Amino acid sequence: MDGSKKRKKNKQQQENNDIVYSESQPEDFGHLAILYPSFRSFVHPSPPHMRLTIDWTDFNAIRQLTCVLLHRRHTLTWWIPGGQLCPTVPNRSNYIHWLEHLLSSNIIPGTISSDSKVRGFDIGTGASCIYPLLGASLHGWSFVGSDVTDVAIEWAEKNVSSNPHISNLIEIRRVQDNNAPPCVEVEDLVNSDQIALCKKTDMEVAPLPLDLHACENKSYRGPPILVGVVRDDEKFDFCMCNPPFFESLEEAGLNPKTACGGTSREMVCPGGERAFITRIIEDSTQLKQHFRWFTSMVGKKSNLKYLVSKLWGVGVSIVKTTEFVQGRTYQWGLAWSFLPPVQKSSISLSNKKNTSFTLEGLQRQHGAINVLESVKSYFSSYGLSCSLNTSSFTVDVAVTKDDCDSILRNELTIVNDSTDCQPTRETSNESSLNFSLERLCFRISVFQQIPGTLLVKGSLQDKDSPLSGAFSVIFQKLEEALRSKFCTKSL
Fold first, then answer.
1. Tell me, what's the pLDDT at 300?
2. Which domain covers residue 26, as residue numbers?
């Protein structure tokens, strides 16, 4: 990539507020070898530049690297026995950084614990107990870490007790394998190209129209994940999970370049990560009041697309995704919540003459005419006299000061009016909403950008009107109502 293209890409990422969670600064293995003699024997020069590195296919080398990084960066004492899944510190730290960003974003209501302290639940914490250790040491979060095997429970408890400065923040909970959990059916997508996720990372994901067909059924069969493990009186700010990514040990062994270990219980699940995370989604529908955020790591982007569609199908209020990049490894974070998004407590009046927004992810039957009809329904619900001209795509409304006050005082969701109208095929159809010039006058235009996306533009006609300051607020409330109807899945 030449300089100009790279600068253009960086500028575009900044404009889109893209965030990729990645610890890009490489560790100095030579310096670590000096500080930690136990690590020295694993470090060797690598041709052609003879840069110091380790053998990434050697489990012992990776385990020792994790041990020294946790001590060097986080003052943590840590170890696991051979054969257990050995985490890479940068990748796990990226997940914690993303969670911290979610929790501090105020997208949904604040902490749900009585003492305002953040509390997390780590599904399948493993012998390493890596996420609770990092979350507690970095942010002072408290955790419940769950697992099912004796080895995982034993060593997770050892790793917690080896760090007395945070041990009071972490509880290790054994999950009883009842061998008869309810099955969660997972459907493969036949027409996966129907799903188009935005390339932005750390993004809110709009509901997507899907045509799902069950061509292959796979189900999760294993111990309880959340339901049956979370207690009735417990509340958490989030759950997190590094799920079993593979459907078989053969699939797990296809990458010969790493040796991070891992038992079959840690690496393999019938149906793979798709079935496991689908089970978390199903559990979340029963525990929606127990968690602010449900989250999971996802290893395959094709599974991410499926899971996003599954989430909108069960009626979540918000979905967010991000990308974790470490070296050549790409993974994704998936988060969802059933809590209503926080509404801004106050809206400042503005004299902006023009404003606009896009409606994305619309189903095929929703076109410009449908949006106009909903605009008419919105203002009619306030008792205003409205007339819709379908040939010219206009809605005429007279708004007085009292009408403005009524709209600004109330938050109203558009009435779900039914319509049989089909989407328009023109790409430049303009629809207008005109107000009387002697009162508040502005125009709303709707353009079809691409299938499933409409641009809604508002233009103030009389900027000198004494009511012009209310224009941006009324337009914002109209935007909220339109998004509520056309861009949000409901149960």
1. 85
2. 17-337
Residues 285-331 have pLDDT tens digits of: 999 999 999 999 998 888 898 999 899 989 999 999 998 876 677 88
Measured CA to CA, the distance from residue 399 to residue 408 in angstroms comes to: 12
Residue 86 sits in the same domain as residue 191: yes
Question: Binding site: residue ranges?
Answer: 92, 124, 147, 242
Would residue 251 count as lying in a domain? yes
* pTM across the whole model: 0.62
Helix axes 130-139, 89-104, angle to 10 degrees: 50
pLDDT tens, position by position, 221-230:
778 999 999 9
Q: Which residues belong to the annotated binding site for S-adenosyl-L-methionine? A: 92, 124, 147, 242
Task: List residues bridging with 459 in a β-sheet.
Answer: 354, 443
431 lies in a domain?
Answer: yes
Return the H-helix or E-strand segment holding 283: helix 272-286
Neighbours of 346 (CB within 10 A): 4
Task: Tell whether 180 and 291 lie within a shared domain.
Answer: yes
- Is the same domain home to 223 and 251? yes
329-337/119-123 β-pairing: unpaired
Return the higher-pLDDT residue of 196 and 150.
150
Strands (E), 148-225: 170-174, 185-187, 203-204, 217-219
- List CB contacts of 13: < 8 A, sequence separation 6 or more: none
The pLDDT score that the predictor gives to residue 23 is 55
Contact 59, 260 (CB under 8 A): yes
Residues ≥6 apart with Cβ < 8 Å to 197: 205, 208, 304, 305, 308, 321
